[in-house]
Putative ABC transport system permease protein
Amino acid sequence: MFSRDKWNEIIESLSSNWFRTILTAFGVLWGIFILVILLAAGKGLENGVKQGFGGMATNSMFMWTQTVAKPYKGLPKGRRYNFKTKDVQAIKDNVPGLQYVSPRNQLGGFGGTNNVVRGLKSGAFNVYGDYPEIINQQPMDITSGRFLNYNDLNERRKVAVIGEGVKTTMYENDEEVLGSYIKVNGVNFQVIGTYKKKSTGGGNSEEDQKEIYVPFTSFSQAFNMGDIVGWMAITANDNNSITALKSSIFDVIKENHTIHPEDDRAIGNFDLFEEYTKISGLFTALNFVAYFVGILVLLSGVIGICNIMLIVVKERTNEIGVRRALGATPWSIRGQILLESIFLTIISGMAGIILATLVLWLVNYALAAQDSSEMMFINPSVDLVTVIIALLILVISGLLAGLIPAQNAIRIKPVDALRTE
């Protein structure tokens, strides 16, 4: 029950020596400030790294062929082989839990010879033969027109979706892009869309915009690839991990191409989910370190409050003796001391949270004025759960800070207390 007299007594006790109270409260204020800032900084770094994945489907892996390392069934080691289109269907049929299996072929590349011509202009670009699902695995924003669809694939249409970087290189500012033609290694493709790929934070964002996507079937036909697949992008559904499924995928490939079951070097792969899991684990560790350091700093403030409450109890020995003589129960004395400790801890802690919030607002305000597409530190913040956890820590800290002084207070005998000067 609310008692005005009790709260007046608390305010009077804490305000009797303002300078001492402020210095004591600063320890808790600084501790909770450090805790919130560390957690927010970790979140800002996490946001930046996640942006670095460019919105990619992280439950994915990329798979390509390598030299066979072991002889098997009369076939020698050191031989090379290629994925085939039948491998794609075999993977879909034999490995449940996959969402996308996208075969890919590639032509050209950054630093290569000019492979794309339009009029008097030419350039060297990555040209990919893809399935429509690739836009879900490597997301991009379609800035005009459309992306590839299955009609393009089934009818082997010679159409292309070009990046904004290709558009800038091959077209004038006022030229119409959609419906125009570009020549890739001597084969004409009609441009049906333009895209801007989401940043991958890997330092190649400019080159990411200089890519061309054409239907997989058209690519194979135009450049005499037959049923060869250069590499694959494979994504598991939400209920499965691609890391857990990739051994089954490798088994299908090994069986189809007569590769030794224990030959782990014949198939190259990059497991994006595995890398993403490592990074997520890193941020979990960073959060743990932030809590550990913040709570240690906060503990020093709690010790300060504990000391000051011990001094307050000693200064109020006579008062406590009189209250005990008048019939005050040990619990009422203990509760008064604990309430003062909790009140001082929460007030100073809330001031720390407010100060941390102000600092984070200023940092975010400064970051908002800059281009964040290539930044590795974005929107440092804390969520409501973190604030609630901080408040719980404050309450527990207040209880701990007042526990020893409260116990000392109820040990004082009324007769001894009244004898003190």
In short: The first helix runs from residue 4 to 15. The chain has three domains: 4-54+277-419, 67-97+237-265, 98-235. Residues 98-235 form one domain.
